[in-house]
TrEMBL record:
It comes from Micrococcus lylae. PROSITE patterns: EF_TS_1 (PS01126), EF_TS_2 (PS01127). This is Elongation factor Ts. Residues 80-83 are annotated as: Involved in Mg(2+) ion dislocation from EF-Tu. It is found in: Cytoplasm. HAMAP family: EF_Ts. NCBIfam families: tsf.
């Protein structure tokens, strides 16, 4: 007869994030010894890590923090929403974010190579994923600096950790600027702009869009003399979709994000937006 209870299984699942059958097998092998069972789960999990390399890790969480005008944001992925909402996975997300802040890492390679409790963060994440029995990966990191940086986290489901996060920097730390920065960060989470200004859009992207607009107008039989105005109008519409400053503001579509910032006496100087799995 097994030397453990249903409560032991539940407790071990919460500690490791591993599946029920994996936990039961480990407890059977360990004769109910929880610490030994954890070691068994870890060893078997690490052995199975290579088998999980090809699996899709599209669930997970985003985490962000701001200290002294520097915003840091990370995305941690797993395979299932069951693991994504587990306390152990959320704690791992906190550890990844703290390491990102403490190490000053600006890219994923540097973050994974950063020291964490005597080993690299990458190794730590791999070991924790082994315990959970899933592919767990740090997908990306972003750093945004400014006179003031707002961090906005959005939950798409009350049962899951944050799935969308935004860092948005402005060039003023006045109360008006801070309020505007937060409102624009919320807007950014919903409208997912790609670029901050028109000048940030690659020239080849603009030219390709211009060509498409021209060809489309000609196919529609628009008069030759009207083509330049039509093309520019459609290009303006394109910018409104992908450029943050040009987007109609979510709370008042009659104005633009750029004007909202300007009226608050500030200007957006940078932003980053993550959505889990996208």
């Amino acid at each position: 007869m097994a030397n453990y209870t249903a409560a032991d299984i539940k407790a071990l699942r919460e500690r490791t994030g591993a599946g029920m059958m994996d936990v039961k097998k480990a407890l059977d092998e360990a004769n109910g010894d929880t610490d030994k069972a954890i070691e068994i789960i870890r060893v078997k999990g690490l052995k199975g890590a290579t088998k999980r390399e090809g699996r899709a890790a599209a669930e997970g969480l985003v985490a962000a923090t701001v200290e002294n005008g520097v915003g840091v944001m990370v995305e941690l992925n797993c395979e299932t929403d069951f693991v994504a909402k587990a306390e152990k996975f959320i704690t791992l997300g906190d550890a990844v974010l703290k390491t990102a802040v403490d190490s000053g890492a600006a890219d994923l390679e540097s973050l994974l190579a950063a020291e964490y409790e005597g080993r690299t963060l990458g190794d730590h994440v791999t070991e924790e994923g082994a315990l959970m029995g899933e592919k767990v990966v740090v997908r990306r990191i972003a750093r945004v600096e400014g006179a003031f940086v707002d961090a906005y986290l959005h939950r798409t489901s009350k049962d899951l950790p944050a799935q969308v996060s935004v860092l948005l920097a402005v060039d003023s730390d006045s109360d008006e600027a801070k309020t505007a920065a937060h409102d624009i960060a919320v807007h950014t989470a919903a409208y997912s702009p790609t670029y901050l200004t028109r000048e940030d859009v690659p020239a080849e992207t603009v030219e390709n869009e211009r060509r498409i607009a021209d060809e489309t107008a000609r196919a529609e039989g628009k008069p030759e003399q009207a083509l330049p105005k039509i093309v520019e109008g459609r290009l303006t519409g394109f910018f409104k979709e992908i450029v943050l400053e040009d987007q109609p503001f979510a709370k008042d579509p009659k104005t633009t994000v750029g004007k909202v910032a300007s009226e608050a006496g500030t200007k957006v100087t940078g932003f980053a937006r993550f959505r889990v799995g996208n």
